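Support request, please re-run this one:
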Amino acid sequence: MTDDDAAIALAHQMFDMAREGRTEELSALLDAGAPVDLTNAGGDTLLILAAYHQNEGTVRALLDRGADVGRLNDRSQNALTCAVFRQEASIVRMLLDAGAPPDDGRPSARATAQYFGLPDMTALLERRG
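Re-run finished. Output below.
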């Protein structure tokens, strides 16, 4: 296995850690110098994956390490849009507190809440954004 192959394999493992909420393992790699805004082939960051898969502890760890809350993936979605879609209020609050923009992307988090008829999410975004 080449160094490039090993780096690619580690990146794939990090994306799995974000999806699966393996916060301690992921945090150790980030603290050792891995990029907090690592992005996969679809433009998904570790934060987007953690938010979509409702891994609150992992989202917190990524935010604590400076993850970019406004980064959009290739489908023009950010972590906040994912958290709104999944109706994960605690993650939505964390992202808003970290400065996530409720009107960025297509659809934006606000538009997602309205389109899917999620009044609790709409109210949360209105109060915070």
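The first helix runs from residue 3 to 20. The chain has one domain: 3-128.
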